Amino acid sequence: MSFLSVHHFNSSSGICRTSHFVVSFPQGTDPDAAERAGRAWAAVLFDSGAYGDRWDYYTAFHKDTAYPHIHVVVGRRGLDEGQWLRVSSRGELTFDRLREVQVAVAAREGIALTGTTRLSRGVHDRPVPDAEYRRARTEGREAVAPAHTKASAIATAAEILDYARDYQGAAMSIAGQAPEFAGRLEVAAATILAGQELVAERAAAPRLTPEEATRMVETIEQLQAEVRQNFVELEADVRSVENPAKRAEFLRELAGLKAEAAPFIRDDAGLQGYQAEALHADYRGVAVSAENTRAAAIKADADREVARLAERFGLQPEATLARFAAETVSVG
To answer: Domain segments of the chain: what residues?
Structure first.
């Protein structure tokens, strides 16, 4: 994973004129490669002009800790256009973009990183704000992360759950081609679902180059996109069937296919709605044997009543009866 922190410092006038970035690399990373990658990171972001301006910056590389890292202090006023450097979730320079650049420049130096977010690693604690870092620095103490509110705790847990589902779906998608990596994705999902954080285990991890990882992600996304498109086309075909009873029958079959696909595409909320573990008994159809004349007669009476109610509420009786003609009912 990538390691990045950002702090802003005010001048005596109260204006925040510099930003301090710390770009770290995992334990065991070759220091020379880390230094080259760190300086390349700064050059891409602050000296290329690709983000609206160029900014003056100073770098200092340290290898006297377990994690080799580079400090980048940037003057926030642009050199060419006078634009102020801003890193936010809505601008050209986002925190995700900072991580993406670190992953890219590290790959060129043979350093395999992933640009993951805190929540994707199961980190439930809130991040420490810049203001708290500044206060802690002034007061000579460790910075303390703010406590969760009830709402933020629930939102954080929900997002971590979404990531776990993504990992599970991706694991199922590549289980045939890459069972070892699929297994690690399953472990990652189980880890964050258990409330634990993912940590880098470089020695234990199977070897995977950045190019191989990219191809793996592209393969997963392509397979999932193909499945989604197939459902769009199938649904259009089914909707064009004129016979309402046949249309309802096909929709039920399509719903079954969506239920089978749902575990593979966990981030598709539409598909997840088809994956009911146990449908309520009120929403199950009734299938009876023709040999059981009494049951068949009871079902015939029920069908007539259902058809009457359907017509009363403006529904097609034939389609409604077909929808409930089997033990499982389409939820589509």
So the answer is: 3-115, 227-323
